[in-house]
Design goal:
Number of strands: 14
Radius of gyration: 23 Å
Strand order of the largest sheet: 2-1-5-12-9-6-7-8
Helix content: 25-40%
Mean pLDDT: 86
Number of helices: 15
Amino acid sequence: GRAVDTRASDTGDTPLMVAAAAGRIACCDALLAAGANALVVNADGRGVLAVVGAKVSKGARAKARAATRAALLKREPSLRVLVLHHGDCDKHVSTKPHQESPERIAAVLESQARAAATGALPEDETVSCSAFDSATYDQLIRAHSEEYIGIVTTLDEEINPVGTPVAFTPYYQGLKGKKQKKKELSDTFFSPGTMAAALRAAGGVVHAVEQVLRNNARTAFVCVRPPGHHAGTDGATEGAPSSGFSILNNAMIGALHALQGNNGRYAKRVAVVDFDVHHGNGTEEIVRGWHCARRRGRAARCGASPDDQDVFFASIHLADDGKGSGVEFYPGTGTQSDLHDNVVNVVVPPMWRLQENVSDAVGGRKRVPKRNRDDDLDGSGSNLVKKKEKEEIAVVAPKVAAPPLSAGGREEWMRLLRDRILPPLRAFRPDLLIISAGFDGANHDVGNVGVDRRGRRNGGVNLTPEDYEEMTNRLCAVTHSGGGKVVSVLEGGYGHLVTDTNENTTTLQRDNFAQCVVAHVRALAGLGAPVKD
């Protein structure tokens, strides 16, 4: 017989894959007991779970697939999706009702439990972990400046005895002389538990990276907060109106740990793909700084070529400068790519542009650009402030017919992901892909709402749970085809507003947001529907 991990010359299949494809559970058990590697992939980038039952006759395939998959997951826990979360992440709070709250994590975990009960995401497909350390100074300094780390550390020491959250954006941006909001209109707060939450969130990504690259887990989802992709080298990036709920850049702390941790033996090439509805301006700034420092270092040593870049960043997001629409969408960056620094930015036109085009076509007056209201959380018109009494608040984004591709919307988003993100990711062939997984592009999520100068709330994009499942499937397939691993970290995604006109109250419902996250985890587990081109 063949050695337990000998690959077929044509397909790259291992004996374990052949046994799994035939539904031979006893044979799979014997191979695993003999030391077979359950995490290898074949020539098509498919692992053992992806081929389960493929060679079983159609009539018996579903039953054989379910039984063989369950047996493999039970016998080899490393095949499960590692889901990381920690109670410290609940300690970060604000001084007023806020969409980025501890209830986000609770909603996701509750939705995952429901999915396990219904079989949509069986319990044996995931393994939860809260036993991981907070990020260390040595891990932070790879992504953030010494000055910024000192500022947030000092703020943490000063605020803990007081116990009252402070407006973080003006506190920090004021020190740097950057454009700042009024203190009472800040969207990012720093509470006595904020530093503990931020360090634990970044530590979760570091732990996930290590576990996946050491083959202790097939893939991982880091369900933590606060989010991080708007935090640049020095926190809020130059020109951004705020730090967008972010304290530390979790994704980049994990990415640079993959490149430099363990004496650089974890990974040689790391990609970060951000599908949050807002541009990952902080991540881009850190990536640019990394490449600049690497070029300077190489030139100083031996004048080596700057082409051997080891980090790739791509962001797909909405953007609008307000010209013609009256809506400036946060953070106002990410409209240009920079291939010199391996940065690909893909802008999806907001759906409110459809309304503008229709207005112009019928002779309507073009609206005068005006900056989005300063008190809008995340600059997106998604604040939860109380309206005037007796004023009826819109329940959700306005109803519009399915827009043509040129007008944005989910079809345009998915097309641009396929055409503009996947090809360069495939060419880069990362050892590790980190997904900055924001779910604020979901239909009616407050994170993709834009407010025009008349105070009207307009939805920017309408992604569904199925879209998030497909995006994740495609990103994983491309990464796995090159032998790479995948770690995902939660960024945005908040919920949709529901109004009770009788009670004149508005609440934030998080069920659709949580369903999108569960769809994402299903895809990480390989349970998503097959991708069709």
